Amino acid sequence: MKTRGFLLRSAIVAALGGLLFGFDTAVISGAEQTLQEMFAATYASLAASLEHLGFFGKHVLGKVGFWHGCTTASALIGTILGAALAGKPADVFGRRKTLSGLAVLYFVSAVWSALAWDWWSFVIARWIGGLAVGGSSVVGPIYIAEISPARSRGRLVALFQFNIVFGILLAFLSNYILGLLNLGEVEWRWIFGVEAFPAAVFLLLLPGNAPSPRWLMAQGRTEEARTVLQRLGTDNVEAELRAIRESIDLDHHHVREPLFQRKYLTPILLAFAIAAFNQLSGINALLYYSQRIFEMAGASADLARLQSVIVGATNLVFTMLALTIIDHFGRKRLMLVGSLGYIVSLSTVAWAFYTDHGGTIVLASFMLFIAAHAFGQGAVIWVFISEIFPNRVRARGQALGSFTHWFMCAAIAWTFPMFAERTGAHVFAFYAAMMVLQLFWVIVLMPETKGVPLEAIQRRFAIE
To answer: 146 near 214, Cβ under 8 Å?
Structure first.
């Protein structure tokens, strides 16, 4: 029981990176309209200086909405880079040490954002936080996957997603409480600065975690890997070591071998697809602009913030439900249910905006939408991507999936203000159509990985 407790403790601490991920992602929703007013002169100046650059300048760079989208998406530019680069240090320095470095970035970003003195300093601070979010989305899930036994891997990796949505709820709740305190001009600074406290806790707890046994084996440190597996409560340590050794196959495959090879095509395409569909649902448009969307539907500012808290709570409840059944119900079935929920909810939101039926219908539809996301894509994506790549390229494969996720996220968050202003309901109809494509992908192409050892998944894809 003591070893099982160490396994759970290690997974929970690593998943705190997910809590900061979720908090950092959603917290800007409480301040984005204040930021729009505060930086209005900067936006106008940037737009005016670039309006002359042909068609693109006139219709994109020359629009104030583009630059506000840039502010909101500044962290997401960092996530793209963080996701793309995190695999390298995770392979060289180890998963645990890389997570510690990311905790430092979270802390620096929170403090810097709160103290920002102009638009450029704020954008840079948010970009640093984005590096941490992108890196966490790579390293956190693979660390948990690599310390977990197959029978409970789905639940333990899903702790990362649970903490993401818990962080989102905390961000919405923090924004709501700070709004009630009437802090005036410094309110937006507190909104961003609060994140420094959980970042410090994450940094202080990480040294108590063990290194990944699979990373240790990749470094040729077999005895240390054996000790870690024993501490984690692995049932048959020697058999596990043999399976890991065969998977890495250091005699025939260099641990730094390139990811982009034909033999890895199947997991590459699967990771790309699930990550792209995750953002084509429009989930981050709702998280970043939740208060604005509810105000568009007729809610007051205070009520819009409260409705954001309700959405966050719904997200948490359904993530908890998915977490308890993911290793029994399976990844594919959760995706099927979630896809259907996406289609119904997004179609209803589009209809509500087309016909000017706002208020309760929009809130109820978004609650169904967030429940579908939490039960399907939200619970599955990080588990699935962390499972489908062989040990020797898992960090880089996770980085590819995370890079795709964050690239699409940046595109959605950056363009939503412009598209919502110009096309209204069309943007939600587009998201619904994308979820119809996801449903087809899940039915036809997505494999089930429930209860399958990591090394066996590699064999299933015929990867030597």
So the answer is: yes
HSE-CB for 59 with a 13 A CA cutoff? 5
Q: Tell me how far apart the alpha carbons of residues 75 and 129 are, in angstroms, rounded to a whole number.
A: 6
pTM of the model: 0.76
CATH of the domain at 134: 1.20.1250.20
Q: Are 75 and 24 in contact (CB under 8 A)?
A: yes
CA gap 432, 282 in Å, rounded: 9
The whole-angstrom distance between residue 141's C-alpha and the CA centroid of its chain comes to 11
The boundaries of the domain holding residue 32 are: 2-460
Question: Coil, strand, or helix at residue 252?
Answer: coil
Reduce the DSSP state of residue 358 to 3 states and report it.
coil
Planar angle of CA 455, 456, 460, nearest 5 degrees: 125
Give the integer Cα–Cα distance in Å for 457 and 40: 52
pLDDT tens digit string along 22-49? 898 888 878 877 887 887 787 777 667 7
**Which residues does 116 contact at the CB level (< 8 Å), separation at least 6?**
122, 125, 189
**Contact in structure between 138 and 399 (CB atoms under 8 Å):** yes
Label residue 5 exposed, middle or buried (CB < 10 Å: 0-12, 13-18, 19+).
exposed
Question: Number of structural domains, the chain?
Answer: 1
- Token pair 């403790």 in the structure block, residue: 9
Rounded Cα gap, residues 285 and 300, in angstroms? 19
Whole-number Å distance between alpha carbons of 142 and 145: 5
Coil/strand/helix, residue 183: coil
Render pLDDT for 308-341 as a digit per residue (tens, 0 to 9). Answer: 788 788 888 888 888 777 778 888 999 999 999 9
Spatial contact of 405 and 278, defined as CB atoms under 8 Å apart: yes
